Amino acid sequence: MGVQHGFRHHLATGALALAAGVGYAQGPAQAVPFDQARQAADRILAQPEFRTVAEDSLLERWATRFFTWIDRLISGILRVGAEKPWILTVIEWSLFSIAVAAVLAWCFRAMKRQQLAIQFEAAASDAVWRAESENWAERARAQAAAGDWREAVHSLYWATIVMLEGRKFWRPNRARTPREYLRLLEPNSPRRKSLGGLTGIFERIWYGNRPASEGDYERAQALFETLRSA
């Protein structure tokens, strides 16, 4: 801002001298009075080519003060360091420690965000699987209410398969047979025994074309609830 103020001062002075000097071109007898010279200078400075000077913005003034303070700080540190070199060593290690701490903090926050993202994705995925399984179970209840026991058992079986897929017991693959699903569970585990009982009912009715009854549905429903609460 000081440079701009000086520049404006020089412009005004030069314009004033220019206006006053017009009268002296023919000799001292034709000198222009000061007031008239001042008016002439104001007219000259009002021209567009002289409207290029503007005051610094508040941000620019603060930036100038900040960098001036930084310059003074560094100069002071260098002066002290010249007298006591060990101070520079302390400052270097302090800055290095701060930089390392900042990097570690950034890494920690990045890992935390990643963990939260994974947890959120897992929770969202689990909610999707639960909703799909519940849709199959709701369909089974509606089919049972209509007396369609065969379709009700079929829907309960798929409600169970989708539920176990959501719990990561296997990767989704609709090309598997019921026995292949069964072999993916741990042998002799309660979960495999329950799924085996449900698979037997489903295969007998769906693939064996045996007539289904309300009792078949109730047994399938009990096995489904056992697996869901396991």
Please tell me about this protein's structure:
Helix 5 packs antiparallel against helix 7. Helices cover 78% and strands 0% of the residues. It has 3 domains: 54 residues, no CATH class; 33 residues; 114 residues, Up-down Bundle (Four Helix Bundle (Hemerythrin (Met), subunit A)), CATH 1.20.120. By secondary structure, the protein is mostly helical.
Number of domains: 3
Give the strand tally: 0
Helices and strands, in order, run as HHHHHHHH
According to CATH, the fold-level topology of the largest domain is Four Helix Bundle (Hemerythrin (Met), subunit A)
Brief descriptors of the model:
230 residues; Four Helix Bundle (Hemerythrin (Met), subunit A); 3 domains; 0% strand; mainly alpha; single chain
Give a quick precis of the structure.
The protein is mostly helical and 230 residues long. The protein is built from 8 helices and no strands.
Which helices and strands appear, and what pairs or packs with what?
Blueprint lengths: L1 H23 L9 H12 L12 H26 L1 H61 L3 H18 L11 H6 L6 H18 L6 H16 L1
Helix pairs in contact: 1-2, 3-4, 4-5, 5-7, 5-8, 7-8
